[in-house]
Cytosolic Fe-S cluster assembly factor NUBP2 (Neotoma lepida), 256 residues
Amino acid sequence: MEAVAEPGNLADVRNIILVLSGKGGVGKSTISTELALALRHQGKKVGILDVDLCGPSIPHMLRAQGKAVHQCDHGWVPVFVDQEQSISLMSVGFLLENPDEAVVWRGPKKHALIKQFVSDVAWGELDYLVVDTPPGTSDEHMATVEALRPYGPLGALVVTTPQAVSVGDVRRELTFCRKTGLQVIGLIENMSGFACPHCAECTNVFSKGGGEELAQLAGVPFLGSVPLDPQLTRSLEEGRDFIQEFPKSAAYSALS
Ligand code: ADP
């Protein structure tokens, strides 16, 4: 699909936030999705750019899978996930003929798509663009940061789980942020204990507090802990708005 390059496509985007994690499966896409929902809850207009090319899960989490990306004179029109058009989403998931198809691309093709995602999507006016990145610190991260850099200061939200291994990965993420000039907004510890749906008690399945300790050591803000919550898993699977259903949840307080 060829789009007409339009350098001004991000000109009306006020804040750009990259969501990073040291490894996969720690809840980066979950946090990106819940962050967008939390911002919408506060009346903001939000775009989500899913550059996790090999694991695009956000269309599913927002019940937008199977929707089509259209073209206008300014490039690709992102998919609106709600009637009010307050959350728009662009993902490689919309460009694949079969959503279960694996993206087996070499670096240059991935870089070209990332560049196109940045220059060719007609986001319009947005308060926030949330960018869900692949796990780790890869060439794709470099390509994303380089493509987005002209559009203003870039914030970074780093997601970790409490285990030491994940916390070690976060150290590398923070080094990446420092070297590439990303402004770390803060660290979120996800899957921090298990929230029992029956008695609301939180059990520490893994060790606890690693994220907070690391944030202190690294001198970055600690934004909060989000427990493993079966209701959150269900909301994500069914594409429901967890933040609206549970505005007093730990997820909302960490993200607002
Ligand atoms: P990543 O993007 O880091 O690979 P995901 O956001 O896709 O990870 O999360 C992996 C799985 O864990 C998903 O099925 C998601 O629903 C679930 N999950 C993530 N965080 C939580 C949480 N706090 N509570 C319950 N389930 C969660």
The pocket of adenosine-5'-diphosphate is lined by residues 21, 24-30, 57, 190-191, 226, 228-229, 232-233, 236 (CB under 6 Å). The chain has one domain: 7-255. Residues 164-180 form the longest helix (17 residues). Residues 19 and 157 are 5 Å apart (CA to CA).
